[in-house]
Design brief:
The complex is a heterodimer.
Chain A lengths: L1 E5 L6 H15 L7 E2 L2 H8 L3 H13 L3 E3 L5 E3 L9 H17 L4 H16 L4
Antiparallel strand pairs in A: 2-4, 3-4
Helix pairs in contact in A: 1-3, 2-3
Chain B lengths: L2 H19 L16 H5 L1 H30 L6 H24 L10 E5 L11 H12 L1 H8 L6 E6 L5 E6 L2 H4 L1 H21 L5 E2 L3 H42 L4 H37 L7 H4 L2 E2 L4 E2 L8 E3 L6 E3 L6 H20 L1
Classes of the chains: A mainly alpha, B mainly alpha.
């Protein structure tokens, strides 16, 4: 199990780390009680600053997904994020769909892409 | 031609072979510690390599000639036989760095921007077995009650160092430190090797963004083999030290059995070298398979690649949180000298002379 970051991506590194770990939790690859490695190990492997990965861990803790133990990594605590309103969650989806529409893709194809992405996430859910 | 001269010449040839092998240990991945493309490696690189070999051999011959000439005119100056070794190593090192500087302009700048990290929370317990730990603990501690039992029977001066023939050549006054020197040393060495294992577990393991899972599996295998090698050394060393403890008692109370103990110690030392060689061989095989499968056995960001010095021998990167990184030249791992935690290890190693002083003077 691993996470990948891309320095050419527009998202900041810490956001990529957050998104990657969230995806693994959503898919069920990271189950409750699974220990995550210490911040320094991920930072060393990826060649990024300690604080970048620490910020990612803090964000995940804020959303109630992990519990950070100082110096010895973190534990996945729940598969349910405490992120609040549906409206907040719709915004990035709306933005992403807008990009597809602007790219000129027909509705059917966009729906196919959405279904495919969702299937990849939820299919492995335990 | 005396034995000492033959041995020193053999050591010289071994040192020469090592320095000849160093630049090509990892092929074009770390040619003099620099990543170059295949084309350069096969052509201009080969020419540079042969020139390096020429100068290495010339240096060795010139340095060997001096003690040989001295030995003719001053046969009593036996130290001259060793002087060359002291001169050859730094000379070969300087030559290596000179040629590294020649190769450096041809380094491939890796513009790769995607990297992965394994989300594995490694524990020391994953890299050992309970049986082995018990065995080592027993081997380390068993001599203690035996030494304690025979303590009163030992004379005021006890042997603490033996020569190659098993005859003691250094003595110390009987004391807690000198009699229990072997178990004390062993506990210290076990601590050091456990520290190294702990460091290895946290070593930097940058993964590629393609075929990540397969690559990770190979890397995990290399790590596991490295850990196994350390564990075997731990076991054999503890048995050797146990035998050394016994030799103090045996030498004093049953001297006819000394050759047996000496043979056991030599046998264990030989076993250690053979198994270590085997594990290193296995690591090299995995590295070669990785080069065939993935085109490389080592992934690093350009910012980290710029932090290797001395022809890829020293890694100094204060911005890198990793304590240990994989060696560029050779197999195994090396310290990130820019990481402050290295001082912990250096401090622990610095305890050694203090420990030896305590053992010898009590």
């Amino acid at each position: 199990m691993f996470i990948t970051v891309d320095t050419a991506d527009r998202r900041p590194i810490y956001q990529q780390v957050v998104d990657e770990i969230k995806a693994l939790i959503a898919k069920g690859d990271l189950t409750e009680g699974t220990a995550l490695p210490p911040v320094r190990q991920i930072a060393g492997d990826l060649g990024v600053n300690l604080n970048t990965v620490a910020a990612a861990y803090r964000e995940l803790q804020r959303e109630g997904l992990i519990n950070v133990r100082h110096g010895s990594g973190a534990i996945v605590t729940s598969r349910t994020s405490v992120e609040t309103s549906e409206d907040d969650m719709r915004k990035p989806l709306r933005a992403a769909l807008t990009q597809f529409v602007l790219a000129g893709l027909p509705r059917g194809e966009i729906m196919g892409i959405v279904r495919e992405e969702l299937r990849q996430l939820v299919e492995g859910a335990k | 031609m005396s034995t000492a001269l033959v041995i020193s010449m053999l050591i010289g040839l071994f040192a020469l072979a090592l320095f000849m092998w160093m630049p090509v240990m990892r092929g074009e991945e770390a040619f003099f510690g620099v990543r170059v493309n295949r084309e350069f490696y096969d052509n201009e690189g080969k020419r540079l390599l042969h020139r390096y070999y020429f100068w290495l051999v010339m240096t060795l011959v010139e340095i060997e000639a001096i003690p040989f000439i001295i030995a003719i005119f001053r046969p009593q100056m036996s130290f001259a036989r060793l002087a060359w070794l002291v001169l050859f190593m730094p000379a070969a090192q300087i030559l290596y760095i000179v040629f590294y500087q020649k190769v450096k302009p041809y380094a491939i700048v890796d513009e790769n921007q995607k990297f992965a990290s394994a989300l594995i929370n490694r524990k020391l317990a994953d890299y050992t077995t309970i049986g082995l730990e018990i065995l080592i603990a027993v081997a380390v501690l068993a001599p203690v009650p035996v030494l304690a039992y025979f303590y009163p029977d030992l004379p005021d001066k006890i042997p603490v160092h033996w020569d190659l023939r098993g005859v003691p050549n250094r003595w110390a006054p009987k004391s807690f430190g000198s009699v229990f020197s072997a178990p004390i040393m062993m506990i210290y060495l076990q601590g050091m090797m456990l520290l190294i294992k702990h460091g290895l577990m946290q070593a930097k393991m940058t993964l590629p963004a393609q075929r990540t899972k397969e690559y990770l599996q190979s890397k995990e295998e290399v790590l596991k083999v490295n850990m196994q090698m350390i564990d075997i050394v731990r076991l054999f060393l503890s048995l050797m030290m146990g035998a050394i403890s016994l030799s103090i008692i045996v030498y004093v109370l049953a001297p006819s059995n000394v050759p047996l103990i000496t043979a056991a110690i030599f046998g264990l030392a030989l076993l250690t070298m053979i198994t270590t060689g085997y594990f290193i061989y296995r690591m090299m095989i995995v590295n070669r398979k990785m080069k065939e499968k993935f085109g490389r056995s080592y992934v690093q960001r350009q910012s980290d690649a710029d932090r290797w010095y001395w022809g890829g021998l020293i890694y100094y990167n204060p911005d890198d949180p990793a304590l240990m990184v994989e060696k560029l030249v050779g197999v195994g791992y090396t310290f990130n000298m820019g990481n402050k935690r290295v001082y912990l290890y250096l401090g622990y190693i610095a305890l050694l002379p203090i420990l030896i002083r305590f053992i010898l003077l009590g």
